[in-house]
Amino acid sequence: MTAIADTRILTGRSLRHISRSPDTIITTALMPVAFLLLFVYVLGGAIETGTGSYVTYLLPGILVITIASSVSYTAFRLFLDLQSGIFERFHSMPVSRPSVLWAHVVTSLVATFVSLAAVVAVALVMGFRSSAGLGAWLGVIGILALLTLALTWLAVIPGLTATSADGASAFAYPLILLPFVSSAFVPTESMPGPVRWFAEHQPVTAIVDSVRALLAGGSVGSDLWIALAWCVGMLAVAYAFAMAAYRRRVA
Amino acid sequence: MTARAPAIEVRDLRHSYGDLAVLKGVDLEVPRGRIVALLGSNGAGKTTLVRILSTLLRADAGVATVDGHDVAASPAEVRAAISLTGQLSAVDDILTGRENLVLVARLRRVPGPGGVADALLARFGLAEAGARRVGTYSGGMRRRLDIAMSLVGEPSVVFLDEPTTGLDPEARREAWAAVRALADGGTTVLLTTQTLDEAERLADRIAILHEGRIIVDGTLDELRALIPAPTVEYVERQPTLEEVFLAVVGGKDRS
User: What is the ipTM of this complex?
Assistant: First the structure.
């Protein structure tokens, strides 16, 4: 199909951008790794999680932060393409229009997973261990991929509507902070009432708890379904708004 | 391709941005294989007209056909027949010049994209720079690459929106030579400009867009005939500053 071929060609273009400026992958992984080091070696000693290794407890939340920081580059790259006029060139060519967006989405998935692999590698060096089997790892990859897809489509909205490059990537800051008010760093039991209620009912806790349970090789339970529902729900809403923004941008 | 239809036909085209009416009933016909300059001051609606013709914007009313296809009803056919070079050089800075051309050739499904790219690089004097990233190119080289990218797949109609804005005199001459090379190959060119000199040098026909309408449309001679015959005076012709500049910097007159 021509739309798939167009997406493949355009994805090749944006992947080449990333391979020629690998600094975006490095900076994406840098902040999560810094959090990992800070929390494990500076603050971790004072944090009581009731589990064995703190780095193993912490990693799922750090992976969520990695995804949030990675998709902000997607918004940035999209914004630059709009600014440079290359989007208009593609739109005035016999190119499937959704492909122009999908190429950025696929690129975002690839770039995010490279960053995630780098963060997991650092965690392994710091003593992260998992007893998860192949099935559980595939489950982890699936959840993270779904979350990346949802947050990428969310990133498409500021990428298409922002008026400055800073504005395009600034939307990610709340996403990066959201894991702090969840079970990612400390168990929610230690939080005061309203904060605890928020933490236990926001998506990051369900996602982090599911990933943590899968990595520990244990049973996941209802958390998994709540996590999947959040991801699919966010994906559907973000996709609808992103497509509406796209239609407003192009005739 | 419909053989006898004009390359571009516009009838009573209207467009407003909110309350601001930009095009108030534009009529224009561009014959095949000609260079037509659309002349007008800033904000006259030149870019709006080009964006409608290249399917980037929908008109509020009126009919526009390009290469025999209605821009509103069959945008896909129009896109296959045209190419657009916008005011910004829409080139990819991170890719090399050759990769930019190969990208467009692959998207247009042109057979042998590498060969097409090499031929265009040679034709636009970019063969040596082809392997370098476009980010390192000068303004004139970017424009030439931009125009070369518009030629991939040999579209029958090319839109050039202010192709020489922001270029220095030498780069402008390079761009002019590129446009003329286009028309020599039988391509129809609609270019917008606000420089009278550029319209005079390049165009077979000139259309003046003013306050939302085409007020004059004809060859340069026809346009000249609109004003009273000049009185003959003898004046010593001083070199223009542009001629001085080009002579001093040693630029070749490529136009």
Answer: 0.84
